[in-house]
């Protein structure tokens, strides 16, 4: 699927979905008071998002 000059595939969308899933985990960990776990998940979500952007 082409949007603008970007060619999106199911793989790209799956990578961004994983990043959103990890961000939901960050929110959940913060609500539970697990700040170190939230920070680790935030870093992982950032890496996954960056990987998805670089894959485009």
Describe, in plain words, how this protein is organized in 3D.
The protein is built from two helices and two strands. By secondary structure, the chain is mainly alpha-helical. The protein has one domain. Strands 1-2 form a two-stranded antiparallel sheet. Strand 1 and strand 2 form a beta hairpin. The termini are close together. The mean pLDDT is 90. Keywords: Membrane, Transmembrane, Transmembrane helix.
What distinguishing features does this structure have?
single chain; 56 residues; mainly alpha; two-stranded antiparallel ribbon; 7% strand
Side-by-side strand order of the widest sheet: 1-2
Class from secondary-structure proportions:
mainly alpha
Total helices: the number is 2
Spans of 5+ residues with little confidence (pLDDT < 50)?
Answer: none
Mean pLDDT: 90
Mind summarizing the main beta sheet? 2 strands, antiparallel
SSE succession: EEHH
Give the termini distance in whole angstroms.
12 Å
Rg, Å, rounded? 13 Å
- What is the total number of structural domains? 1
Number of strands: 2
Strand content: 5-15%
- In helices, the fraction of residues equals over 70%
Tertiary shape = elongated
